[in-house]
Amino acid sequence: MDIKSSLLPALQIPPITSTISRLILAMEQRVDLDHSAQALGEIFASLTLPYLQEFELQGFCFTWPHGNFLALCERSSFRRCLKTLGVSHVVITEKELLQVLSALGSLEYLHIADQPLREGEVKVITDSFLLALTVSSASVRGLPLLPRLRHFSCISLLCFTNDIFKDFITSRLDACSPRPFQITIKWYSHTVPGFLQMPQASCRNFWLAVHCSYTA
Fold it and tell me: Which domain of life is it from (predicted)?
């Protein structure tokens, strides 16, 4: 099959430079994941947003156009300005997500999600991902990823171990002090995860918001 024939016509978006501080892109109807990647990639390629502080994708799931976003980061100096990233409606690999986060040194709020797709689960919130965000382990290699992170929000398939999750929290508490560090977590399971047994009440600067969402 000719791959080009399966793609949508180019959106032909002219180059746009804007001083907006907030951008939300929403997919209002379900489309083929390849088509979503094409459309989103063309949007990213058209934009330069040097003052953007908040970026979020909403609605139905997008496939992540990785190269286009990294180019947008570089072109717009997101390392300096972007403080909020919400990509819970995105199919992205753990490796790609870590590369994105390494380009966002000013980020304070992160919202991500594992994706339980029919084609197979896409897991990003894993032990290796949490270790990369744990200040004590990351500091061996230099500055940790997201040194200004204050709020970590996720929807998880619970593919991580409790001890590594606790170490991640503890390290971020120390890094944020005296400011509070907040976690909001939802999970695709009827099982109550073991990390809820941790003594969060004894941590003055820790806020854990727990929600449960079930797969259909």
Answer: Eukaryota
- Higher confidence at residue 21 or residue 2? 21
* pLDDT 10s digits, 135-185: 874 454 567 899 999 999 999 999 999 999 989 988 888 777 677 888 888
List the strands of the sheet with 181-187, edge to edge. Answer: 22-27, 54-59, 84-86, 109-113, 151-156, 181-187, 206-210
Q: Among 112, 103, 205, which residue's Cα sits nearest to residue 157?
A: 112
In three-state form (DSSP H/G/I as H, E/B as E, the rest C), the secondary structure along 80-129 is HHCCEEECCCEECCHHHHHHHHHCCCCCCEEEEECEEECCEEECCCEHHH
CB 45 within 8 A of CB 69: no
**Which segment of 22-31, 97-106, 201-210 scores lowest on mean pLDDT?**
201-210
**Placement of tokens 């744990």 in the chain:** 134
Tokens of 49: 């947003």
The SS3 call for residue 24 is strand
pLDDT band at 3 (very low <50, low <70, confident <90, very high): very low
Nearest to 106 by CA among 65, 62, 147: 147
108 vs 85: CA distance, rounded Å: 8
Its pTM stands at: 0.84
Q: Which amino acid is at 142?
A: G
